[in-house]
Amino acid sequence: MGKTQVCPPRALPPLPSGVKDDIPRSHPKKKKSRSKSLRASASSEVLAEPVPHRPSEGSEPPTTALKEDSETPAQRRQKRTRPPLECETSFTQKKTSSPSLLRNENGIDMDPAEEAVAQKPRRKAKKAKPELQYANELGVEDEDIITDEQRVPEQQSRFTAPTGISQPVGKVFIEKSRRFQAADRSELIKTTENIDVSMDVKPSWTTRDVALSVHQAFRMIGLFSHGFLAGCAVWNVVVIYALAGEQLSNLPNLLQQYKTLAYPLQSLLYLLLALSTVSAFDRIDFAKTSVAIRNFFALDPTALASFLCFTALILSLSQQMTSDRIHLYTPPVNGSLRAAGIEEQILQPWIVVNLVVALLVGLSWLFLSYRPGMDLSEELMFFCDTEEYPDKGSKASS
Amino acid sequence: MLQTSNYSLVLALQFLLLAYDLFVNAFSELLRTAPVVQLVLFIIQDIAVLFNVIIIFLMFFNTFVFQAGLVSLLFRKFKGTIILTAVYFALSIALHVWVMNLRWKNSQNFVWTNGLQALFVLQRLAAVLYCYFYKRTAMRLGDPRFYRDSLWLRKEFLQGSR
Protein backbone atom coordinates (compact mmCIF):
# COMPACT_ATOMS: atom_id res chain seq x y z
CA MET A 1 0.00 0.00 0.00
CA GLY A 2 2.84 2.31 0.76
CA LYS A 3 3.90 1.89 -2.74
CA THR A 4 0.65 3.32 -4.03
CA GLN A 5 1.04 6.41 -1.91
CA VAL A 6 4.63 7.01 -2.72
CA CYS A 7 4.70 5.99 -6.28
CA PRO A 8 3.37 8.69 -8.57
CA PRO A 9 0.73 7.84 -11.13
CA ARG A 10 2.20 6.13 -14.12
CA ALA A 11 0.22 8.24 -16.49
CA LEU A 12 2.75 9.64 -18.83
CA PRO A 13 2.69 12.56 -21.23
CA PRO A 14 1.49 10.71 -24.36
CA LEU A 15 -1.84 9.81 -22.78
CA PRO A 16 -4.89 11.86 -23.87
CA SER A 17 -6.79 14.08 -21.42
CA GLY A 18 -9.69 11.62 -21.16
CA VAL A 19 -7.37 9.02 -20.09
CA LYS A 20 -5.69 11.36 -17.64
CA ASP A 21 -8.92 11.46 -15.63
CA ASP A 22 -8.76 7.78 -15.28
CA ILE A 23 -5.39 7.87 -13.76
CA PRO A 24 -6.52 7.36 -10.20
CA ARG A 25 -8.72 4.47 -11.37
CA SER A 26 -6.18 3.05 -13.67
CA HIS A 27 -3.53 3.11 -10.99
CA PRO A 28 -4.71 0.05 -9.11
CA LYS A 29 -5.15 -1.62 -12.46
CA LYS A 30 -1.60 -0.85 -13.31
CA LYS A 31 -0.53 -2.18 -10.01
CA LYS A 32 -2.51 -5.28 -10.69
CA SER A 33 -1.07 -5.75 -14.11
CA ARG A 34 2.35 -4.99 -12.80
CA SER A 35 2.00 -7.43 -10.01
CA LYS A 36 0.53 -9.85 -12.49
CA SER A 37 3.40 -9.42 -14.81
CA LEU A 38 5.75 -9.76 -11.90
CA ARG A 39 4.01 -12.88 -10.74
CA ALA A 40 4.00 -14.23 -14.23
CA SER A 41 7.64 -13.50 -14.58
CA ALA A 42 8.27 -15.03 -11.20
CA SER A 43 6.29 -18.12 -12.07
CA SER A 44 8.05 -18.35 -15.38
CA GLU A 45 11.27 -18.12 -13.49
CA VAL A 46 10.26 -20.91 -11.23
CA LEU A 47 9.15 -23.03 -14.12
CA ALA A 48 11.96 -22.19 -16.40
CA GLU A 49 14.86 -22.17 -14.00
CA PRO A 50 15.24 -24.10 -10.84
CA VAL A 51 18.32 -22.03 -10.06
CA PRO A 52 17.89 -20.58 -6.57
CA HIS A 53 17.15 -16.95 -6.74
CA ARG A 54 15.54 -14.75 -4.20
CA PRO A 55 12.59 -12.71 -5.38
CA SER A 56 13.30 -10.14 -2.68
CA GLU A 57 16.47 -9.19 -4.50
CA GLY A 58 14.50 -8.34 -7.54
CA SER A 59 11.77 -6.45 -5.72
CA GLU A 60 13.74 -4.58 -3.10
CA PRO A 61 15.89 -2.27 -5.16
CA PRO A 62 13.00 -0.77 -7.09
CA THR A 63 11.12 0.00 -3.85
CA THR A 64 14.13 1.82 -2.49
CA ALA A 65 14.43 3.58 -5.74
CA LEU A 66 10.80 4.54 -5.55
CA LYS A 67 11.29 5.89 -2.07
CA GLU A 68 14.04 8.05 -3.36
CA ASP A 69 11.81 9.22 -6.12
CA SER A 70 9.12 10.28 -3.68
CA GLU A 71 11.47 12.89 -2.29
CA THR A 72 12.21 14.43 -5.69
CA PRO A 73 10.11 17.17 -7.24
CA ALA A 74 7.02 16.28 -9.27
CA GLN A 75 8.60 17.08 -12.60
CA ARG A 76 11.50 14.84 -12.00
CA ARG A 77 9.15 12.30 -10.58
CA GLN A 78 7.20 12.19 -13.82
CA LYS A 79 10.32 11.62 -15.77
CA ARG A 80 11.66 9.11 -13.38
CA THR A 81 8.59 7.05 -12.68
CA ARG A 82 9.04 5.01 -15.79
CA PRO A 83 12.62 3.99 -15.42
CA PRO A 84 12.08 2.25 -12.11
CA LEU A 85 9.26 0.31 -13.70
CA GLU A 86 11.39 -0.47 -16.63
CA CYS A 87 14.14 -1.39 -14.36
CA GLU A 88 11.83 -3.62 -12.49
CA THR A 89 10.52 -5.35 -15.55
CA SER A 90 13.75 -5.39 -17.36
CA PHE A 91 15.45 -6.53 -14.24
CA THR A 92 13.13 -9.46 -13.79
CA GLN A 93 13.37 -10.26 -17.43
CA LYS A 94 17.07 -10.10 -17.29
CA LYS A 95 17.08 -12.29 -14.30
CA THR A 96 15.03 -14.86 -16.07
CA SER A 97 17.28 -14.72 -19.05
CA SER A 98 20.56 -14.84 -17.17
CA PRO A 99 20.66 -15.06 -13.42
CA SER A 100 24.41 -15.11 -13.51
CA LEU A 101 24.36 -11.44 -14.29
CA LEU A 102 23.40 -10.74 -10.72
CA ARG A 103 26.57 -12.28 -9.53
CA ASN A 104 29.84 -10.59 -9.47
CA GLU A 105 33.09 -12.15 -10.54
CA ASN A 106 33.60 -13.87 -7.24
CA GLY A 107 30.25 -15.57 -7.59
CA ILE A 108 28.76 -13.67 -4.64
CA ASP A 109 25.28 -12.25 -4.91
CA MET A 110 25.25 -8.54 -5.15
CA ASP A 111 23.86 -6.49 -2.34
CA PRO A 112 20.52 -4.77 -3.02
CA ALA A 113 22.16 -1.46 -2.31
CA GLU A 114 24.80 -2.21 -4.88
CA GLU A 115 22.12 -3.19 -7.31
CA ALA A 116 20.47 0.13 -6.81
CA VAL A 117 23.77 1.80 -7.48
CA ALA A 118 24.13 -0.27 -10.55
CA GLN A 119 20.69 0.70 -11.73
CA LYS A 120 21.18 4.46 -11.41
CA PRO A 121 23.25 4.95 -14.51
CA ARG A 122 20.70 3.01 -16.44
CA ARG A 123 17.98 5.37 -15.34
CA LYS A 124 19.94 8.29 -16.68
CA ALA A 125 20.36 6.53 -19.92
CA LYS A 126 16.64 5.94 -20.12
CA LYS A 127 15.84 9.59 -19.66
CA ALA A 128 16.89 10.35 -23.16
CA LYS A 129 14.51 7.84 -24.58
CA PRO A 130 11.29 9.19 -26.11
CA GLU A 131 8.30 7.92 -24.16
CA LEU A 132 5.49 9.42 -26.15
CA GLN A 133 4.97 6.56 -28.53
CA TYR A 134 3.87 4.08 -25.90
CA ALA A 135 0.13 3.84 -25.79
CA ASN A 136 -0.34 1.23 -23.16
CA GLU A 137 1.75 -0.28 -20.48
CA LEU A 138 2.13 -3.68 -22.01
CA GLY A 139 3.61 -2.15 -25.08
CA VAL A 140 5.97 -0.18 -22.96
CA GLU A 141 7.10 -3.24 -21.15
CA ASP A 142 7.57 -5.18 -24.33
CA GLU A 143 9.63 -2.49 -25.78
CA ASP A 144 11.64 -2.28 -22.66
CA ILE A 145 12.42 -5.90 -22.85
CA ILE A 146 13.64 -5.58 -26.39
CA THR A 147 15.84 -2.64 -25.57
CA ASP A 148 17.18 -4.45 -22.56
CA GLU A 149 18.02 -7.46 -24.61
CA GLN A 150 19.85 -5.26 -26.99
CA ARG A 151 21.83 -3.82 -24.17
CA VAL A 152 22.76 -6.98 -22.45
CA PRO A 153 26.53 -6.64 -22.78
CA GLU A 154 26.40 -3.08 -21.56
CA GLN A 155 24.33 -4.03 -18.57
CA GLN A 156 26.53 -6.95 -17.83
CA SER A 157 29.49 -4.69 -17.66
CA ARG A 158 27.60 -2.39 -15.34
CA PHE A 159 26.52 -5.15 -13.04
CA THR A 160 29.96 -6.55 -12.81
CA ALA A 161 31.54 -3.17 -12.35
CA PRO A 162 31.28 -3.02 -8.53
CA THR A 163 33.30 -6.16 -8.23
CA GLY A 164 36.38 -4.23 -9.09
CA ILE A 165 35.83 -2.01 -6.09
CA SER A 166 35.38 -4.87 -3.60
CA GLN A 167 38.39 -5.58 -1.49
CA PRO A 168 39.29 -9.01 -0.08
CA VAL A 169 38.50 -9.34 3.60
CA GLY A 170 41.29 -10.33 5.91
CA LYS A 171 39.29 -13.23 7.25
CA VAL A 172 38.22 -16.34 5.46
CA PHE A 173 35.29 -18.43 6.59
CA ILE A 174 36.03 -22.13 6.60
CA GLU A 175 33.49 -24.83 7.33
CA LYS A 176 34.65 -26.84 10.30
CA SER A 177 32.36 -29.37 11.98
CA ARG A 178 29.30 -28.03 10.13
CA ARG A 179 29.99 -24.45 11.14
CA PHE A 180 31.70 -21.65 9.37
CA GLN A 181 34.54 -20.34 11.42
CA ALA A 182 36.57 -17.29 10.68
CA ALA A 183 40.20 -17.92 9.97
CA ASP A 184 42.97 -15.53 9.18
CA ARG A 185 43.87 -15.47 5.54
CA SER A 186 47.60 -15.31 6.15
CA GLU A 187 47.44 -18.39 8.41
CA LEU A 188 45.46 -20.25 5.81
CA ILE A 189 48.05 -19.43 3.19
CA LYS A 190 50.76 -20.71 5.51
CA THR A 191 48.96 -24.01 6.09
CA THR A 192 48.32 -24.50 2.39
CA GLU A 193 51.96 -23.80 1.72
CA ASN A 194 52.88 -26.46 4.25
CA ILE A 195 50.54 -28.90 2.55
CA ASP A 196 52.14 -28.06 -0.76
CA VAL A 197 55.56 -28.73 0.70
CA SER A 198 54.48 -32.09 2.09
CA MET A 199 52.86 -32.92 -1.24
CA ASP A 200 56.12 -32.11 -2.93
CA VAL A 201 58.01 -34.41 -0.59
CA LYS A 202 55.65 -37.38 -0.84
CA PRO A 203 55.97 -38.30 -4.52
CA SER A 204 59.67 -38.99 -4.03
CA TRP A 205 58.67 -42.33 -2.42
CA THR A 206 56.37 -43.97 -4.92
CA THR A 207 54.91 -47.47 -5.15
CA ARG A 208 57.59 -48.23 -7.66
CA ASP A 209 60.26 -47.39 -5.10
CA VAL A 210 58.52 -49.60 -2.54
CA ALA A 211 58.53 -52.49 -5.01
CA LEU A 212 62.14 -51.83 -5.86
CA SER A 213 63.23 -51.74 -2.23
CA VAL A 214 61.33 -54.97 -1.50
CA HIS A 215 62.93 -56.56 -4.53
CA GLN A 216 66.38 -55.51 -3.39
CA ALA A 217 65.67 -56.76 0.14
CA PHE A 218 64.59 -60.10 -1.26
CA ARG A 219 67.75 -60.24 -3.33
CA MET A 220 69.77 -59.87 -0.14
CA ILE A 221 67.73 -62.65 1.51
CA GLY A 222 68.33 -64.77 -1.58
CA LEU A 223 72.06 -64.15 -1.49
CA PHE A 224 72.14 -65.15 2.16
CA SER A 225 70.04 -68.25 1.54
CA HIS A 226 72.35 -69.29 -1.31
CA GLY A 227 75.36 -69.24 0.95
CA PHE A 228 73.53 -70.88 3.83
CA LEU A 229 72.14 -73.57 1.55
CA ALA A 230 75.55 -74.36 0.08
CA GLY A 231 77.04 -74.62 3.55
CA CYS A 232 74.16 -76.71 4.84
CA ALA A 233 74.30 -79.13 1.90
CA VAL A 234 78.04 -79.59 2.22
CA TRP A 235 77.74 -80.11 5.99
CA ASN A 236 74.96 -82.67 5.36
CA VAL A 237 77.13 -84.68 2.98
CA VAL A 238 80.09 -84.55 5.34
CA VAL A 239 77.94 -85.79 8.25
CA ILE A 240 76.48 -88.61 6.12
CA TYR A 241 79.88 -89.82 4.96
CA ALA A 242 81.29 -89.53 8.45
CA LEU A 243 78.48 -91.58 9.95
CA ALA A 244 78.46 -94.16 7.16
CA GLY A 245 82.13 -94.98 7.76
CA GLU A 246 84.73 -96.10 5.22
CA GLN A 247 83.27 -97.49 1.96
CA LEU A 248 79.78 -97.05 3.50
CA SER A 249 80.43 -100.04 5.77
CA ASN A 250 78.53 -98.75 8.80
CA LEU A 251 75.09 -97.97 7.37
CA PRO A 252 73.05 -99.08 10.43
CA ASN A 253 75.01 -96.56 12.49
CA LEU A 254 74.16 -93.86 9.93
CA LEU A 255 70.49 -94.75 10.13
CA GLN A 256 70.39 -94.74 13.89
CA GLN A 257 72.29 -91.48 14.25
CA TYR A 258 70.86 -89.65 11.28
CA LYS A 259 67.23 -90.68 11.85
CA THR A 260 66.34 -87.64 13.94
CA LEU A 261 68.12 -85.27 11.55
CA ALA A 262 66.80 -86.60 8.25
CA TYR A 263 63.39 -84.94 8.07
CA PRO A 264 64.28 -81.58 9.63
CA LEU A 265 67.23 -81.30 7.27
CA GLN A 266 65.09 -82.26 4.31
CA SER A 267 62.57 -79.56 5.26
CA LEU A 268 65.28 -76.98 5.77
CA LEU A 269 66.87 -77.87 2.45
CA TYR A 270 63.53 -77.45 0.69
CA LEU A 271 62.97 -74.05 2.31
CA LEU A 272 66.43 -72.80 1.39
CA LEU A 273 66.28 -74.30 -2.08
CA ALA A 274 62.90 -72.67 -2.70
CA LEU A 275 64.22 -69.27 -1.60
CA SER A 276 67.41 -69.69 -3.61
CA THR A 277 65.57 -70.81 -6.73
CA VAL A 278 63.17 -67.88 -6.57
CA SER A 279 66.09 -65.53 -6.04
CA ALA A 280 68.05 -67.10 -8.91
CA PHE A 281 65.00 -66.82 -11.19
CA ASP A 282 64.75 -63.18 -10.20
CA ARG A 283 68.32 -62.64 -11.28
CA ILE A 284 67.75 -63.91 -14.81
CA ASP A 285 64.15 -62.68 -15.04
CA PHE A 286 62.87 -66.19 -15.68
CA ALA A 287 59.40 -64.91 -16.67
CA LYS A 288 60.93 -63.53 -19.87
CA THR A 289 61.68 -67.00 -21.17
CA SER A 290 63.45 -65.93 -24.34
CA VAL A 291 65.97 -63.83 -22.43
CA ALA A 292 66.51 -66.60 -19.87
CA ILE A 293 67.10 -69.28 -22.52
CA ARG A 294 69.43 -67.02 -24.48
CA ASN A 295 71.43 -66.33 -21.35
CA PHE A 296 71.56 -70.02 -20.51
CA PHE A 297 72.95 -70.94 -23.94
CA ALA A 298 75.39 -68.09 -23.67
CA LEU A 299 76.61 -69.83 -20.48
CA ASP A 300 75.81 -66.81 -18.38
CA PRO A 301 76.84 -67.68 -14.78
CA THR A 302 73.55 -66.44 -13.34
CA ALA A 303 71.49 -68.44 -15.81
CA LEU A 304 73.59 -71.51 -15.08
CA ALA A 305 73.18 -70.97 -11.36
CA SER A 306 69.39 -70.85 -11.74
CA PHE A 307 69.41 -74.06 -13.72
CA LEU A 308 71.60 -75.78 -11.14
CA CYS A 309 69.38 -74.58 -8.34
CA PHE A 310 66.24 -75.85 -10.01
CA THR A 311 67.86 -79.24 -10.72
CA ALA A 312 68.98 -79.48 -7.10
CA LEU A 313 65.44 -78.71 -6.00
CA ILE A 314 63.99 -81.52 -8.13
CA LEU A 315 66.61 -83.99 -6.89
CA SER A 316 66.10 -83.00 -3.29
CA LEU A 317 62.31 -83.36 -3.60
CA SER A 318 62.67 -86.77 -5.17
CA GLN A 319 64.32 -87.96 -1.96
CA GLN A 320 61.33 -87.09 0.19
CA MET A 321 60.14 -90.67 0.32
CA THR A 322 63.55 -91.97 1.39
CA SER A 323 63.88 -89.25 3.98
CA ASP A 324 60.54 -90.25 5.47
CA ARG A 325 61.69 -93.86 5.47
CA ILE A 326 64.83 -92.91 7.39
CA HIS A 327 62.73 -90.74 9.70
CA LEU A 328 60.47 -93.71 10.52
CA TYR A 329 63.37 -96.16 10.75
CA THR A 330 63.17 -98.73 13.54
CA PRO A 331 66.27 -100.86 14.08
CA PRO A 332 65.68 -104.60 13.49
CA VAL A 333 65.61 -106.85 16.54
CA ASN A 334 68.59 -109.03 15.70
CA GLY A 335 70.07 -107.25 12.72
CA SER A 336 68.87 -109.73 10.12
CA LEU A 337 70.62 -109.98 6.74
CA ARG A 338 67.45 -109.05 4.86
CA ALA A 339 67.14 -105.73 6.66
CA ALA A 340 70.81 -104.94 6.06
CA GLY A 341 70.41 -105.57 2.33
CA ILE A 342 67.43 -103.25 2.04
CA GLU A 343 69.25 -100.53 3.95
CA GLU A 344 72.13 -100.58 1.49
CA GLN A 345 69.81 -100.65 -1.51
CA ILE A 346 67.90 -97.62 -0.35
CA LEU A 347 70.65 -95.58 1.26
CA GLN A 348 73.30 -95.72 -1.47
CA PRO A 349 71.28 -93.74 -4.08
CA TRP A 350 70.13 -91.38 -1.36
CA ILE A 351 73.72 -90.62 -0.36
CA VAL A 352 74.71 -90.08 -3.99
CA VAL A 353 71.77 -87.78 -4.60
CA ASN A 354 72.66 -85.78 -1.50
CA LEU A 355 76.21 -85.48 -2.76
CA VAL A 356 75.02 -84.26 -6.15
CA VAL A 357 72.66 -81.77 -4.51
CA ALA A 358 75.51 -80.43 -2.41
CA LEU A 359 77.69 -80.06 -5.51
CA LEU A 360 74.93 -78.34 -7.47
CA VAL A 361 74.06 -75.83 -4.77
CA GLY A 362 77.75 -75.22 -4.09
CA LEU A 363 78.35 -74.48 -7.77
CA SER A 364 75.28 -72.31 -8.06
CA TRP A 365 76.44 -70.29 -5.05
CA LEU A 366 79.84 -69.85 -6.68
CA PHE A 367 78.26 -68.71 -9.94
CA LEU A 368 75.96 -66.27 -8.21
CA SER A 369 78.73 -64.93 -6.03
CA TYR A 370 80.76 -64.31 -9.17
CA ARG A 371 78.40 -61.47 -10.09
CA PRO A 372 76.33 -60.69 -6.98
CA GLY A 373 75.10 -57.35 -8.32
CA MET A 374 73.61 -58.75 -11.52
CA ASP A 375 69.82 -58.58 -11.56
CA LEU A 376 68.03 -58.73 -14.89
CA SER A 377 64.57 -58.47 -13.35
CA GLU A 378 65.40 -55.19 -11.76
CA GLU A 379 66.61 -53.86 -15.07
CA LEU A 380 63.78 -55.27 -17.17
CA MET A 381 60.95 -54.76 -14.70
CA PHE A 382 61.79 -51.39 -13.30
CA PHE A 383 64.01 -49.66 -15.85
CA CYS A 384 62.76 -51.05 -19.13
CA ASP A 385 61.28 -47.86 -20.57
CA THR A 386 64.04 -45.31 -20.56
CA GLU A 387 61.98 -42.77 -22.48
CA GLU A 388 59.49 -42.65 -19.64
CA TYR A 389 62.00 -42.73 -16.84
CA PRO A 390 65.09 -41.09 -18.23
CA ASP A 391 66.72 -40.49 -14.85
CA LYS A 392 66.26 -44.05 -13.66
CA GLY A 393 67.22 -45.44 -17.01
CA SER A 394 70.57 -43.70 -16.86
CA LYS A 395 71.01 -45.00 -13.31
CA ALA A 396 70.31 -48.55 -14.48
CA SER A 397 72.69 -48.33 -17.37
CA SER A 398 75.42 -47.01 -15.07
CA MET B 1 46.28 -43.69 -8.32
CA LEU B 2 47.59 -46.29 -5.91
CA GLN B 3 48.78 -44.82 -2.61
CA THR B 4 52.23 -45.81 -1.42
CA SER B 5 51.02 -46.69 2.08
CA ASN B 6 48.20 -48.83 0.71
CA TYR B 7 50.53 -50.59 -1.66
CA SER B 8 53.06 -51.25 1.11
CA LEU B 9 50.30 -52.73 3.27
CA VAL B 10 48.99 -54.93 0.49
CA LEU B 11 52.51 -56.05 -0.43
CA ALA B 12 53.23 -56.91 3.20
CA LEU B 13 50.04 -58.97 3.39
CA GLN B 14 50.90 -60.77 0.17
CA PHE B 15 54.39 -61.56 1.41
CA LEU B 16 53.01 -62.77 4.73
CA LEU B 17 50.68 -65.18 2.94
CA LEU B 18 53.50 -66.32 0.67
CA ALA B 19 55.78 -66.86 3.65
CA TYR B 20 53.10 -68.93 5.38
CA ASP B 21 52.67 -71.00 2.22
CA LEU B 22 56.40 -71.63 2.01
CA PHE B 23 56.58 -72.48 5.71
CA VAL B 24 53.77 -75.05 5.48
CA ASN B 25 55.26 -76.57 2.35
CA ALA B 26 58.60 -76.92 4.07
CA PHE B 27 57.60 -78.05 7.54
CA SER B 28 54.15 -79.65 7.27
CA GLU B 29 55.75 -83.10 7.09
CA LEU B 30 57.44 -82.42 10.40
CA LEU B 31 54.33 -81.09 12.12
CA ARG B 32 52.31 -84.27 11.99
CA THR B 33 52.11 -85.18 15.65
CA ALA B 34 48.31 -85.29 15.21
CA PRO B 35 46.40 -85.48 11.95
CA VAL B 36 44.25 -82.51 12.99
CA VAL B 37 47.31 -80.24 13.16
CA GLN B 38 48.23 -81.05 9.59
CA LEU B 39 44.62 -80.68 8.48
CA VAL B 40 44.36 -77.19 9.99
CA LEU B 41 47.71 -76.21 8.44
CA PHE B 42 46.56 -77.40 5.02
CA ILE B 43 43.21 -75.66 5.25
CA ILE B 44 44.85 -72.36 6.21
CA GLN B 45 47.39 -72.82 3.42
CA ASP B 46 44.66 -73.26 0.81
CA ILE B 47 42.76 -70.28 2.17
CA ALA B 48 45.98 -68.25 2.02
CA VAL B 49 46.38 -69.10 -1.65
CA LEU B 50 42.76 -68.11 -2.26
CA PHE B 51 43.31 -64.84 -0.40
CA ASN B 52 46.37 -64.15 -2.50
CA VAL B 53 44.34 -64.75 -5.64
CA ILE B 54 41.63 -62.38 -4.42
CA ILE B 55 44.20 -59.71 -3.54
CA ILE B 56 45.94 -59.91 -6.90
CA PHE B 57 42.61 -59.67 -8.72
CA LEU B 58 41.61 -56.67 -6.62
CA MET B 59 44.93 -55.11 -7.58
CA PHE B 60 44.13 -55.82 -11.21
CA PHE B 61 40.73 -54.15 -10.85
CA ASN B 62 42.41 -51.13 -9.34
CA THR B 63 44.65 -50.53 -12.33
CA PHE B 64 43.89 -47.93 -14.96
CA VAL B 65 44.44 -50.61 -17.60
CA PHE B 66 41.54 -52.64 -16.25
CA GLN B 67 39.30 -49.64 -15.66
CA ALA B 68 39.93 -48.52 -19.22
CA GLY B 69 38.60 -51.91 -20.32
CA LEU B 70 41.89 -53.38 -21.49
CA VAL B 71 41.35 -56.64 -19.62
CA SER B 72 42.93 -58.69 -22.38
CA LEU B 73 46.12 -56.65 -22.10
CA LEU B 74 46.24 -57.26 -18.37
CA PHE B 75 45.58 -60.97 -18.88
CA ARG B 76 48.28 -61.16 -21.55
CA LYS B 77 50.78 -59.58 -19.21
CA PHE B 78 49.96 -61.75 -16.21
CA LYS B 79 48.55 -64.93 -17.68
CA GLY B 80 51.54 -66.92 -16.40
CA THR B 81 50.77 -65.97 -12.83
CA ILE B 82 47.03 -66.57 -13.18
CA ILE B 83 47.44 -69.99 -14.80
CA LEU B 84 50.21 -71.09 -12.47
CA THR B 85 48.28 -70.04 -9.39
CA ALA B 86 45.26 -72.00 -10.55
CA VAL B 87 47.43 -75.08 -11.25
CA TYR B 88 49.19 -74.77 -7.91
CA PHE B 89 45.89 -74.43 -6.06
CA ALA B 90 44.53 -77.55 -7.75
CA LEU B 91 47.71 -79.52 -7.04
CA SER B 92 47.73 -78.39 -3.41
CA ILE B 93 44.16 -79.45 -2.80
CA ALA B 94 44.77 -82.81 -4.49
CA LEU B 95 47.89 -83.50 -2.43
CA HIS B 96 46.27 -82.36 0.82
CA VAL B 97 43.24 -84.56 0.27
CA TRP B 98 45.38 -87.55 -0.63
CA VAL B 99 47.83 -87.16 2.26
CA MET B 100 45.10 -86.53 4.83
CA ASN B 101 43.15 -89.49 3.54
CA LEU B 102 46.17 -91.77 4.01
CA ARG B 103 47.31 -90.33 7.33
CA TRP B 104 43.98 -89.69 9.04
CA LYS B 105 44.03 -93.01 10.96
CA ASN B 106 47.71 -92.89 11.93
CA SER B 107 49.85 -89.89 11.11
CA GLN B 108 53.13 -91.79 11.74
CA ASN B 109 52.50 -94.41 9.06
CA PHE B 110 54.69 -94.74 6.00
CA VAL B 111 52.17 -93.88 3.30
CA TRP B 112 54.34 -93.06 0.29
CA THR B 113 53.60 -94.52 -3.10
CA ASN B 114 55.08 -93.60 -6.46
CA GLY B 115 51.96 -91.65 -7.38
CA LEU B 116 52.01 -89.69 -4.14
CA GLN B 117 55.71 -89.00 -4.56
CA ALA B 118 55.13 -87.67 -8.10
CA LEU B 119 52.26 -85.47 -6.95
CA PHE B 120 54.36 -84.24 -4.04
CA VAL B 121 57.26 -83.23 -6.31
CA LEU B 122 54.91 -81.53 -8.77
CA GLN B 123 53.11 -79.62 -6.03
CA ARG B 124 56.36 -78.44 -4.41
CA LEU B 125 57.83 -77.38 -7.76
CA ALA B 126 54.62 -75.54 -8.60
CA ALA B 127 54.84 -73.86 -5.19
CA VAL B 128 58.28 -72.45 -6.01
CA LEU B 129 57.16 -71.24 -9.42
CA TYR B 130 53.97 -69.79 -7.93
CA CYS B 131 56.02 -67.96 -5.34
CA TYR B 132 58.30 -66.50 -7.99
CA PHE B 133 55.56 -65.47 -10.41
CA TYR B 134 53.26 -64.14 -7.71
CA LYS B 135 56.00 -62.07 -6.12
CA ARG B 136 56.97 -60.69 -9.51
CA THR B 137 53.38 -59.78 -10.37
CA ALA B 138 52.80 -58.12 -7.00
CA MET B 139 55.86 -55.99 -7.50
CA ARG B 140 55.10 -55.17 -11.10
CA LEU B 141 51.67 -53.94 -10.06
CA GLY B 142 53.47 -51.28 -8.05
CA ASP B 143 54.54 -49.68 -11.30
CA PRO B 144 52.71 -46.33 -11.64
CA ARG B 145 52.37 -46.92 -15.39
CA PHE B 146 49.49 -49.30 -14.66
CA TYR B 147 47.58 -46.55 -12.89
CA ARG B 148 47.59 -43.81 -15.52
CA ASP B 149 47.29 -43.24 -19.20
CA SER B 150 50.70 -43.24 -20.83
CA LEU B 151 52.54 -43.68 -24.07
CA TRP B 152 53.67 -47.10 -22.91
CA LEU B 153 50.06 -48.21 -22.39
CA ARG B 154 49.06 -47.00 -25.84
CA LYS B 155 51.98 -48.86 -27.38
CA GLU B 156 51.06 -52.02 -25.51
CA PHE B 157 47.47 -51.69 -26.62
CA LEU B 158 48.49 -51.25 -30.24
CA GLN B 159 50.79 -54.27 -30.04
CA GLY B 160 48.01 -56.33 -28.53
CA SER B 161 45.44 -55.33 -31.12
CA ARG B 162 47.75 -56.32 -34.00
UniProtKB/TrEMBL annotation, chain A:
List all membrane-crossing ranges: 223-243, 263-284, 296-317, 347-368
UniProt-annotated location(s) = Cell projection, Cilium; Membrane
* Sections of the chain in a coiled coil: none
Identify one Gene Ontology CC term for this UniProt entry: rod photoreceptor outer segment
Domain of life (superkingdom) = Eukaryota
Alphabetically list the UniProt keywords: Cell projection, Cilium, Cilium biogenesis/degradation, Membrane, Transmembrane, Transmembrane helix
The signal peptide stretch is none
| Membrane topology annotation | Multi-pass membrane protein
Q: GO BP, one example?
A: cilium assembly
Ranges for region Disordered: 1-111
Protein task? Component of the transition zone in primary cilia. Required for ciliogenesis.
**Hey, which family's this protein in?**
Belongs to the TMEM237 family.
Q: What is this protein called?
A: Transmembrane protein 237
Gene name in the database record: TMEM237
TrEMBL record, chain B:
Localization per Swiss-Prot or TrEMBL: Cell projection, Cilium; Vacuole membrane
Q: Which residues cross the membrane?
A: 36-61, 82-99, 111-133
Coiled-coil intervals, chain numbering: none
Keyword annotations for this protein, in alphabetical order, are: Cell projection, Cilium, Cilium biogenesis/degradation, Glycoprotein, Membrane, Transmembrane, Transmembrane helix, Vacuole
At the top level, the lineage of the source is Eukaryota
Membrane topology designation = Multi-pass membrane protein
Q: Name one GO cellular component term.
A: cilium
**Example GO biological process:** cilium assembly
Q: Which family does it belong to?
A: Belongs to the TMEM138 family.
Q: What does this protein do?
A: Required for ciliogenesis.
**Know the name of this protein?**
Transmembrane protein 138
**Organism listed in the record:** Chinchilla lanigera
State the organism's lineage. Answer: Eukaryota, Metazoa, Chordata, Craniata, Vertebrata
What is this protein's gene name?
Answer: TMEM138
